Amino acid sequence: MDAAFIRTRDCQTWLNWLKAKYDGVGRIPGREDFDVLLGHCQAVCDMPAAYFAEELIQAYPDAKVILTIRDVDKWHQSVTRTLEVVDNSIVWAAIGLFARLLRMPNRWNWPMFQKLHQILYDHDFPRNGKASFEAHYARVRALVPAERLLEYHVSEGWAPLCAFLGRPVPEDNDTPFINKTSEINDKLKSMHVENLKAQGKRVFNICVFAALTWTVVRALRLV
Q1: Does the global pTM surpass 0.85?
Q2: pLDDT tens-digit map of 75-90
Q3: In angstroms, how far is the first alpha carbon of the chain from the final one?
Q4: Stretch 43-47: mean pLDDT, rounded?
Q5: Helical H segments across the chain, by residue range
Q6: Is residue 139 within 8 Å of residue 131, measured between CB atoms?
Q7: Residue 223 confidence class, pLDDT cut points 50, 70, 90
Q8: Neighbours of 108 (CB within 10 A)
Q9: Please, which residues have CB within 8 angstroms of residue 102's CB and are 6 or more apart in sequence?
């Protein structure tokens, strides 16, 4: 998901693909499309790629798939305290609106994430979140042959993951623990601040340009 905030223009492509798959508007992506957008990646995870599990598995039939196991109640609680706060935030909605009006590079972020929220939870995460979680797990298990699928919990450490991928276990053998609730919220707050700064700078530049234009036009009229 972080890549959606780094490569913000990709969000327009993802949004178009989401509309094609779920609304029947446009063409559903295939291998060539994924190669163009994701060809620089060794792996993909999280949103929005997870919404195209079927298409990605079909496009890359030799790829290995890792299904990260989580307790559904803890996951639901975590999302409620992080991403759901953003999805229901007036600030986030305002940033999205002004990004479109000001034609900011990240103007596709908000509509893409709103589309994801609609598809996955029908805009009602408290009621539909857990069912959507379970449905995704069932879908991946049905799509991927057993020899290409690893169901993995981070508490298992490096050994099963490295064995599945054919890679050596790191010497320090310490499993990273990132994306804690506090870390995610700090990252989201920082993102909001940077967006507001960028939009403020764009508004300032527009005002300066308008003022200069008015000054020049007024001067020409006086000549």
Answers
A1: no
A2: 999 999 887 877 778 8
A3: 57
A4: 90
A5: 2-6, 10-23, 31-38, 53-59, 72-81, 83-87, 90-101, 109-121, 125-143, 158-165, 181-222
A6: no
A7: low
A8: 22
A9: 199, 202, 203, 206
